[in-house]
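As promised in the previous annual report, we have extended the structural survey to additional targets. Below is the entry for YqaJ viral recombinase domain-containing protein.
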Amino acid sequence: MAAIDLAPGSPAWTRLITASKVAAILGVSPENWESKRSLWLKMRGDIPWDDGRNVAEKSRGHYLENGLIDWWADQHPEIARVRRQPIVTNRRLPWAAATPDAIGTGIGAPLYLDAKTSRDDAEWGTPGTDEVPAYYAAQLTWAMHLSHGRRGMAVKTAHIALLTQFLDLREYVIEYDAELGHDIEDQCRAFLRSLDDPDAIPPVDGSQATWRAEKRRHPDIDLDKTVELDGDLAQAFVDIKAREADVRAVQSRLREVMGDARLATYGGVTIARRQPNAHGVTLMPVAKAIPTTKEQHAA
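The corresponding structure token record, generated without further manual editing, is:
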């Protein structure tokens, strides 16, 4: 029997609800990776799959994955065997699959393992806990959920081996929550059914993924076609230029105040972070809201 190719972008992968897609369906995928709307458009074939985004990050994870798994395994002698890239399916859900980085077996119950790298350790909580980014928790919960079918291994624990920004190895543990697993299944099934209804497209949001998807959605231009806008959208678009100037002014003021500092805080909360990129230093927003006066006093 030929092996199933579930590499991202393969024909089989595009038709299945895999772990990375679950995060987008739930609305917890990083906004520059995927949104519910961008995934919906791709799975319907309305836009192509890979737009070449996050290549560096994907490459980094690919090259470091095996080393991280080996490092983790060295610290777990109770794990007699580590099998890489298992394909997890469930006969009850022929439209679903997951590919955790590894499965460990030995003394005790089997477990799934994902190897991750971090550019910002602030996204991660206390080692040994399940305080991990929501999109990673969703992916591993999905893999464990699929294993609980007939003839499945019924995996109840998943580990994450994390290489921190300071090159330390941390470990996080996620326990299977059956109620959450079934809720995720219901949402994924509803999403899959919606693909047959062109009017069921998820609403527009402010994510980069949706913005990129809409840019690619209509590559042709009908020179004879005109669309009448409603007043709110027309005014919002006219106001964009003014808002862009305001954004640049705020960013410039913040850069001036920060100087060569890495972090900017307010009331004990990190507001912005400077980090290097290929073109110099970029300014990254961190907090979604600033603390209230009461919260500041509590801090």
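The longest strand covers residues 269-277. The mean pLDDT is 90. These points will be discussed at the next consortium meeting with the crystallography subgroup.
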